[in-house]
Specification:
4-stranded mixed beta sheet, 32 helices, 6 domains, 5-stranded mixed beta sheet, alpha/beta
Length: 725
Amino acid sequence: MRRGLYRADKAVPGLIETSNGGVLFIDEVHRLPPEGQEKLFHFMDNGSWRRLGESADERSATVRLIFASTEDLEKHFLATFIRRIPVIVKILPIAERGQFERLAFIHHFFRREAQRLNHDLELDGEIVSQLMRETLEGNVGGLENLIRNICASAWTFGERDSGLLHIKAGLLPDRLLADAPFTLQQNSERVMIYRDGDAQPLFSGRHHEYQRLTENICSLCEELAQDNISVRTFEKLIYQNVTLYLDALMNQESTVSLQDKRLRFIEDVGKAIAVNYDLQLNVEFAYLTGRYLTSLPLAPRSVAEPVRLVMQRWLDSSAGLAQRIAEKLLDVVNNKYDLLIDTLDRLAITAIVSNAIDATSGGKVKALIIAHGYSTASSIAGVANRLIGEKIYQAMDMPMEVAFNDVSRAVVDYLQHTDTRAGVMVLIDMGYTKEIADALLSVINGPLVVVDNVTTRMALNVASEIALGKNIEQIAEEIVPLNQSRWDVFWPAEKKERVLLVTCITGIGTAFKFKNLMEKSLLNDFDINIIACEYTRLKNSRTAVSLLHQYEVIAVVGTHDPQLAGVPWVGIEELLGEQGHRHLSQLLSGYLNEKQIALINKNMVREFSLHNVVNSLTILNAGKTMGHIETIIAEWQNTLGFHFNNNLIISLYVHLSCMIERLVMRNEISHYKDLEQFTSQHGEFIAMVNHSFQRLKILYNVALPVAEIGYIHDIFELRIEDFSW
């Protein structure tokens, strides 16, 4: 401003003159009127300016300009002014920042209040969660004022002792409490803010559980890298560890955040993606996924790079469809909530998805119709799908001007996003059988059946069989010939899955019972799948060939030998009989060590015995009773100095469980042939039995008559030759 203007008694340098050779920062620049903007961009163009009140020659200056504004540029600035700004940086409001930045702001403002009040702060964890979740008015300043008000309220109305101020969730403003997406937890974890130090990890209990999960998964990755466990076992154990982690979090919380809007959103995304991939995934899948992602800790993951590479290799090479579904879900969720998702989290979510696919996809055959013409395939597929009442077919129309390669690429793209382990059936109007096989075998995990001369009638017949859950070879054998069509079956050339077939001549229902009992007996690291199969189908040569092409069948277990070429068979009775351990060793010695085989044999005998005991007991818990008996049998084996065969163990499980129930119900047996002679000749045996039953006598307040011990002795004499105790 020049001297004399507006009564100025001397010239005063302005902002530009003062900033010459430096930087001028202009805040709230949107407040400049258009005239002021014009003067400013004149200086930006020429580097020249005049003092207020001057009309003489212009002055010059070299100044770097930085502007700041909270308003929309296009609404408050001249276009000619905006054009002259070479770099425009948009700084996101706090509501759009990542979780780390938001958490850092919250921590900073609380710590500043702790220093001002000269007290450490103990916060309900829910306060931090709500501040992280809500969009606050006033941006960073609004958050700062809110935290200052919360601390002031706590100072006035809250508890403070020994330099510690307690801040409860109820001190949040009413508008935040009203908008809270779930009931505030009275026993939520505490977050400590120290006036002269750093905060503890947010939600320390949650962080501890996540660290444990991280350590367990890293250990499994190291085991996988050293080939100590199989890929299948690795996947199962990852899922088990994730569910244990989520269970631990549930136990730490007094109420479950079922109404959390993030949880609902993630569940909805999971369900929508499952529909897109034509999968009927269970409700648990969506809930577990949502629960995991809403409980992610706000801290970097401590995973060594070699371990991270193992995780990534598994995701890239082994996870397949589950990994693609998980990636799609994470992309959608991350776009909305900006979560910190690590390779470890991708692996965990993929394991959840994979387990859901295993549990619910259940092996329905995937079917496609390919036909020449603009809508021929769509028309046939539409009729079949509507009449069956569910979507069985995916239609691929092939207009005459479209090359087959274009259609095959579309088919490949569809199948890459589909669970194909139960097989793929392609119905086509004419030709291209070999070309279809060449294009598809590299992207599917099960058998491929290509059927020629598709008609609406054939499509309906096939769709009805698929809806009933029949397997692909059975459909091809029974239905396709009725429609006078030709079909071919192809198998992927990938490494085959090892399986143990379980069968029963009485039907598939009994075979499934055998399968379930055997699965309960197996170890976590048993990398062989068990498949139940009808005996009559195994006797069918075409079905047998199909199974041998699709799987590496290590053995058949059942009631009768289906005589599969080159596949060993062992009867159920033999597995559970006197030489059961030997038979099991012959089947599994190439896959497990002797200790593992012995444990499986023990579990199998126990599970089959438990199945019989459950039907015999009326008031006792069969599982607990079997546990007591297992301990007793182990004591007897140590005392007698030899290992009991399977027949004896099964007999003891059934007899002792029924005997214990008799004792509890006061229906014990008191008569035994030559009781006095038995007592005098077998005193050591009686003492051994009484000693092993001591705990049960106290537990159930029962006595064990010598007559009952006599019948136990009879079982030993029956099952063991020359038993002399």
